[in-house]
Amino acid sequence: MTMTAAHDVQTQARQLAGYADASRLRQEHDRDWVLDRIPDAPAALVDLGSGIGQLLDTALDRFPTLTRAVGLERSPHRIAEARQRLARHGDRVALHPADLLRPPLLPLRADAVTMTSVLHWLHPDEERILAWVAEHLAPRGRFLLTTYHPDRDEDGFGGEDEIVRDALASLGVRSAGVPGLFRAGAVLPIGTRTRTADDLRRLLERHFTVVGTHERDAVVTVDSAERYTHFHAATFGDYYGRLVEPARRTDFYRAVGESAVRRQEQRGHVSSMPVRLWELGPADPSGRLL
Ligand SMILES: C[S@@+](CC[C@H](N)C(=O)[O-])C[C@H]1O[C@@H](n2cnc3c(N)ncnc32)[C@H](O)[C@@H]1O
């Protein structure tokens, strides 16, 4: 990798950049899956962890009745990209910089609240956003949530953690030492952040009625190590990169791409994991509480 490329992957990871392209590998498939289950003729929609605004953009085109589309998102780089993408919708859309662990009160009742590929980032404090959604959902509203459920091992590792473990091993870290490295760096494995479906159901039922669930497998394949490095930096940013000293980070991101390709050669794909779409309604289906 050249010096320019070396600089680029680290900057990309810090800014979570390149998501429009990278999300084609996995996250984009959630979009229509979720929008197909929005109640008829919605007026107000809130997207939590709205990223670069792709779901809101599609929803605004698809539902002419939508007059209040609101995105809450923490990353300033992603909000800036979303503003550009959504400018053509004028005042039908509003984007708020926000931490979903301390979400601001909004003066609305939403016909739909969506949250795709975000909940694991709020672990172990998911209940704060669940209580917020319950407060902001209209009596017949729907909370449409997608969650990932990779297998996890005895160290709580699953999904991307395994690719990172292989990458660290190829840089000379003993496999057995990786969980300790995660703990020392205060990096919680994604396999631990993503609760099991049963665990999550118990949590969701404290706030909502589970109207239905749908499952699909998210299978990721890549045509090159560089492409996976790009996907990793755009999706996970420097979450794992900070386990490695700055001078070795470019090597780390390259090793992640190479590890992904090795796995694909062995298994036919880099990763495959169940994704669940939860269709949730207010806890009191009659809406009397609201
Ligand atoms: C994997 S992306 C998903 C983006 C989009 N929902 C999608 O499906 O393409 C996760 C998003 O959640 C945002 N996020 C993570 N933790 C957050 C928090 N505490 N508050 C607000 N946004 C957060 C990230 O910045 C990122 O845009």
From TrEMBL:
| Source taxon at top rank | Bacteria
Q: Name one GO molecular function term.
A: methyltransferase activity
Query: Which biological process terms from the Gene Ontology are attached to this UniProt entry?
Result: methylation
Keyword Transferase attached? yes
- Keywords of this protein's UniProt record, alphabetized? Methyltransferase, Transferase
Under the heading InterPro entries, the entry gives: Methyltransf_12, Methyltransf_Superfamily, SAM-dependent_MTases_sf
The chain positions of domain Methyltransferase type read: 46-143
> Which PANTHER family does this entry report, sorted A to Z?
METHYLTRANSFERASE
What protein name is recorded for this chain?
Class I SAM-dependent methyltransferase
Q: Origin organism of this chain?
A: Streptomyces solincola
Q: What is the lineage of its organism?
A: Bacteria, Bacillati, Actinomycetota, Actinomycetes, Kitasatosporales
